[in-house]
Amino acid sequence: MDITSITIVGNGLAAAQCALMLTTMLPSSVQLNLIRSKDCPDSDLLYGSITSPDAYQHNLQLTVSEPEIMLQSDSSFSFGTRFVDWGENKRDWIQCFHQPFSAEAGVHFHQIIRKHDANLEDYLISAQAAKLGRFAHPPVDKPESALSRAEYGYHFYPTEWAELFFKKLTSKKINIVDTESCSVNLVDNNIESITLANGKQITADLFIDCSGTSSKLLSSISDEFEQQSQIDAVFKLVNVAQTGPSYRQIQGDHTQWQSVTPLQNKNLLLSVKKHAANQSGTGQFTLGRRPKAWINNCVGIGHAAYVIEPLTPAPHMLLSKDILRLAELIPLGKNMLMESKEYNRRYINDVKHAELFQFALYDENQMPASDELTRKLEQFNHRGVLANFDLEPFHDEDWLTLHFGMGRKSQYYDRLADQINTTEMASKLLNMRKGLQHLAQQIPPHHIYLEKFLQYLREKHVNH
């Protein structure tokens, strides 16, 4: 029997984006409800303040364009994150976004960099532009330009984005219900209905838990949660006279760090302090994950299923993956066993591999035990090989930039690099480095580019 109704519970970014996705893809025969319950905790700050480049396409799938994002929120552009005095060794680098690195005579570029004992960051245009606080859209019609190799994401304030995406729902086919509180009614460990504060009950075939860290729906079915650690996290918005650079800045180490994210004439400050797991009386939020995000007729999205530290773009990346995965696996009938099994397989892979990337930002004597991470580090440290696993959310370029930024240096390089004339390659690298530095200086400062871009969008809107 086909499902006829789906109910989402939540009042934050996950609920808004999930609802928008389903309104664009569900047939008119399926009733879609959104219960915005005020007793759901506000954990949106844990989605961080920076997206990956994939956010552009993801937002379009949710019918939200870049002009809408820039005009209706204080978002700005991002070439990545600058880590300053990071960790025990006080590392400083730009964890930038970039398209696949080039190859020379079949040899990976990072192997050539290793042979010539060069600095990878010097050859990444997005890193060079970010260091100068500059930004421009990568040209799509000039593939010969080095800037076309750059990728960009957004700096964003999660509360603003939640409001923007909720606003989009007003013109969609969806039943939105606001309530002070709600409770879950179970029959045979399946959710039968949600009871609102006024006593009214809403039934559905499939329930989607977007209730944040309370996991209001999932926790009524199962209390399984693999706790890793606890954190205190505090956001603060500060007005500034001029929009900041095209990067978010992070300073500290994996136990305690602070970030500054430049928005439009504002800085979003985040302070994070970590505590050991199960340490009594500490930790505003608990980091960890549920072994299953889809149980019976309920699926958890975002913080209802896992909470990951907002150190990288991972939290927003994972939320996007949750929503796309759900869209692909909307059940064909009321027996959801096959859909839930596939959803959970991909869910746990995504979360585990996002965690690996964040753990790789730890000093090696502080890393948690992980066979997969050990394999990655051993292979890279030995001869610069990138060990890949299925469904990794971070790309090879992300991992290479991180490894070089953390000062990891392979013992050996690919011997195929010896077939390339050393003197000629050294001259080519020198010219490439100088060319990128010169190009970066020609790119406008982020705040000037943003001002002109917004002015263009406003004038275009008025003329249309």
Automatic annotation (TrEMBL):
Cleaved signal peptide residues: none
Xref: InterPro entries: FAD/NAD-bd_sf (IPR036188), Flavin-dep_Halogenase_NPB (IPR050816), Flavin_halogenase (IPR006905)
Pfam families: Trp_halogenase (PF04820)
Gene3D superfamilies with a match to the protein in the record: FAD/NAD(P)-binding domain
Top-level division of the source organism's lineage: Bacteria
Protein name as catalogued: Tryptophan 7-halogenase
Organism (species): Glaciecola petra
Organism lineage: Bacteria, Pseudomonadati, Pseudomonadota, Gammaproteobacteria, Alteromonadales
